[in-house]
Amino acid sequence: MNFFIKHYVSFFFATFILLILFLVIERFYCQYYEQNIFDFIFSLCHEKSITNSYLWKESGFVENLQSLFLIFSIFFLISASKKIKKQKTIIYYFILIQYVGLIYFLGEEISWGQHIFNWQSPEIFNKLNNQNETNIHNISNLFNELPRSLVLLWCSFSSIFVVLINKFYKINKIYKTIICPNKNLIYISLLLLLIVLPDLIIDKFDLSPTYVFSFNNPDEVISYVIGERPPSIDTFKLRIFYEKISLNFLRLSELHELVFSYYFFIYSLTLKRKLTI
Prior knowledge:
Shape: globular
Largest sheet: none
Radius of gyration: 22 Å
Distance between the termini: 19 Å
Number of helices: 13
Helix content: 55-70%
Order of helices and strands: HHHHHHHHHHHHH
Low-confidence stretches: 218-222
Oligomer: single chain
Strand content: under 5%
Mean pLDDT: 83
Number of strands: 0
C-alpha cells in the first residue's frame, strides 16, 4: 500500500498508456486487417460488437471516461481551493479559473446534460448548431478551435517549460506549484505531443494526397474525384501510410480530448495533495 501511495502517479500513467495502446491497436486492426486476422479479433470489429458500437461512439466509453476524469478534476480543484481560500494567494484565484474552465469543458462534452437525459435541443440550437446539440462548440470554429488550442498549448508545454526553465533559473515556488505540481505531468505532455505532431505536420505541409476515395482492399480504388484521374497505387498507398502514422483511422479529436482530461485529472490530484501536505 505504501508503495502504491508513493508511486500512484506512475501507476495511473502506466494504466493509461495500456488503455491508449488498446484503443489504437483495436481501431488499427479493425480498419486495415479486419478480413485477415483471427475470428475472435474479427468479432471485435463487427458492426454490432461492443468495441465498434461503444468504444468511440457518441456517449461511448471514450467520451464517458473523459467526463469521469473531468468530474474528478473539478472535485480535486474545489477541494484544493478550500484548503487555501483564506490565504487569497494567486494559487487560489488560478484554481478558480481552472475549475470554471473545466466545468465548461465537461458541460460542452456532455452537451450540458443532453447526452445523459436525452432532451430535445431548443430551436435556437437546432438552427445554429452543426450537430443540433445543446452546446456552443459546434456553432462556430471560434468556440471550438480557440479553447481547444489553448488547452493543447497548456497540456503540451506548461510543465515542460517550467521544469526546463527551473534548471537554469529558480522559479518562485508558488508559480512552479500552480503550473507543474508534479514532474510526471511531463510524460503526459510528451504522450500528447507524440499523438498530435504527426497529424499537425502532415496537415501543415500538405503531405498526404488529397484524393477522395474508398476501398475494400489496398489494390482496389472504388471511387475518386469526378473529372480527375484516379490515383496511382503508389499514391493510394502513400495516403494510407500517412493516415496510419497520423492516427486518422480513429476519432483523433476524441483521443486528444481523452489525453487532455487525463492531464487535468493528474494535475488536479497532485496539486491537491501538494497543497495539503
